Amino acid sequence: MSGPTPLTELIGPVVRDLAKRSGKDLTRWLDQVIRLNGCSEPIRLIGESLTVDTSTGELLTSYNTRAEPHGQLLVRCGNRRASRCPSCAEIYRRDTFHLIRAGLSGGSKGVPATVRTHPRVLATLTAPSFGAVHRGPDKNGRARVCHPRRHEPACFDRHPASDTRIGQPLDPGGYDYVGHVLWNAHAGDLWRRFTIYLRRHLAGAAGLSQAAFNRQVKVSFAKVAEYQARGVVHFHAVIRLDARTEDGTPLPPPEWATVQLLDGAIRSAAAAVRLTAPDLGQPTTDLVWGDQIDVKPIPPGELDDGDELTEQKVAGYIAKYATKAAETSGTLDRRIRSADLAWLRDQGATEHAAQLIRTAWTLGNPATHPDLLPLRLRQWAHMLGFRGHFSTRSRTYSTTLGALRQARIDYRQAQRGESAAGTGSTLVLAHWKFAGQGYTPGESALAASIRTHADSRGTPKEEQHRRSCWPGQRGDLSGEACR
Ligand SMILES: [Zn+2]
Ligand SMILES: [Zn+2]
Known about the structure:
By secondary structure, the chain is α+β, with helices and mostly antiparallel strands. The protein has 12 helices and 11 strands. It has a 5-stranded antiparallel sheet with strand order 9-4-6-5-10, with helices on both faces. Strands 1, 2, 3 and 11 form a 4-stranded antiparallel sheet that branches. Helix 1 (7-22) crosses helix 10 (441-457). The chain starts with 6 loop residues before the first helix and ends with a helix. One zinc ion is lined by residues 134, 146, 155, 157, 159, 165. Residues 134, 146, 155, 157, 159, 165 line the site of one zinc ion.
């Protein structure tokens, strides 16, 4: 979405627009927008919600969107991506931060503080090369000569971080686009195999059978996918060893389960993963992890010793990556239709990303590549072939996003002096229908000015909590819409 039109230019059309759609009830609309707490692409719903006392049959509350402006209720979109909705992405980022940190520091959300003593690392698994690409500054931000070599392709430039050539191939004609798209399309599979191999390699390194290892140790993961500038996905993961317990509480593992054992097994397991790519005549025939596997132990504590990782830093990294999608690699953040293919560059895709999208689209043709149909490459062309989850955690890592959302809902209900919806002696009957998404141009400008006003005033936390939940949003809607 481009920036909103200045309010002064729109005030006439705005009033006409709102008066036509909302009748007299402009204040009601403003109230809804304030409660959206900054969401820029709200979902519009039509429907009703009834709360009934199951012991007496008495109707406790009822809510119907008929009374709302436009006859619709606006709820937060809940989009994870900062490029689509900065406000909802920020809530997602904060939730992710808290649950990653809970899995590292413990002492909250049902995770014991002893997790700090468990072997745990931050591991980064990347893809191999599909052709040389222009390189930016190194990890420490120092500029370096891109590809100083005698043979072609070479590049002797030092690209600053802002250089748009970073990640673009030196020789697009020789780049393995098919191999690249197929790798992204299998990245989730490669990860899944890695987790299976990791348990095997840990058992082997400890001199135990797989069954004996599984009886004693549980491997917990929290991973995020991130796009490198070259348009290939890579994974960052917190990997932790716990003792296997009946109820899943993460307790310290046996003494032989050390961070060295974990480090070695991650490297050997990643090196062992191999999938055979569908043969389309491309140079990349085996889908494997690249050599650049990074494993860093996460020490306990909050002390920041320069480059050293801290629990806080790791939680911050993972949470930040969780709200990014593929757009950092120069692609588009929406699904592609065939009509878009001729205009990818005009819509903001780099030439490299556009070529990857076209490759995915071609490979996704069911007539010519029926065997690739399960990869759903057309549906995921804008993601350059990757269709996996951006952020996943194993069940025992820490709490879940759903649990955090429920905690927020319970908190608001407690504030209003209500019991949790659908539990105890109350039953919530709700029926909702999707009616659309986003604001009209007039509403968008007004909503933007409300957001600016709220930001500059610095709304207190409790007030934000109160505002972000609409009294009608309960029951089966609450988990999704009322966050
Ligand atoms: Zn939103
Ligand atoms: Zn270069």
